[in-house]
Amino acid sequence: MTDDAVVAAAKRGDQDAWRSLYRAHAGRLVVWLETRSGSDSAVAAEDVAAQTWLTAAEKVADYTGGAEEFGAWLFGIARRVAANYRRRSGRRRTDPVADAPGAEVDGPDATVPERAWIADLLAGLSPRERDVVACIDVVGLSSADTARALGMTQVAVRVARHRALRRLRAETSTTLLAATIA
After folding, report:
1. What is the DSSP letter of 60?
2. What is the mean pLDDT of residues 97-108?
3. According to CATH, what is the number of the domain 1-94?
4. In the 3-class helix/strand/coil scheme, how is 72-112 assigned residue by residue?
5. Which residues contact residue 51 at a Cβ distance below 8 angstroms, ignoring those fewer than 6 apart?
6. Lowest-confidence range among 29-33, 134-138, 152-156, 176-180?
7. Cα separation of 27 and 131, whole Å?
8. 2/137 Cα distance (integer angstroms)
9. Residue 113 CB: number of other CB atoms within 10 A?
10. CA separation for the pair 105, 97 (Å, rounded)
């Protein structure tokens, strides 16, 4: 089955075609959603991804393009679903409380010591730059697909990535210099 045949079959409701699209994009979608800031603490990235797949299944009949562009279309849906969750969380006020019982739970940070350092580095970027770096360098989307997913032009994507990488280089070199001196 060619890429376009996979999408055409998914539009007809073929489970194998949906399975193929899911395998190609589900993991990257969850990773990307985890890198986005400002998410609702009561909603996991997997919840947003599940809602994204549901919305994609409802709207796939309106989709035009092949399997290659499907990822960008799907990430665009995920961006809008995540924005809806953020708006809801602002109304619900589900921010975590520092002294809540059970707040001291070991998570992925316990197994990956560099994760906190990476999170701190990415936190220094603007949300736009963080999204672009996550799409291109973490999930592996192309510049065109990143632009489509984030609702930006390709030029804006390249500029945001260039600025983000320049900031990250400056930050890491400063950190390494400080570690060397200490």
Report:
1. G
2. 49
3. 1.10.1740.10
4. HHHHHHHHHHHHHHHHHHHHHCCCCCCCCCCCCCCCHHHCC
5. 81
6. 176-180
7. 16
8. 27
9. 8
10. 14
Same fold, 1-94 and 113-182: no
d(CA 83, CA 131): 13
Say if residue 29's pLDDT is above 70: yes
- Write out the two tokens for 157: 């994507």
Tokens of 142: 């192309």
113-182: CATH architecture: Orthogonal Bundle (1.10)
Mention every residue, 6+ apart, whose C-beta is less than 8 A from residue 65. 7, 73
Structural domain spans, the chain: 1-94, 113-182
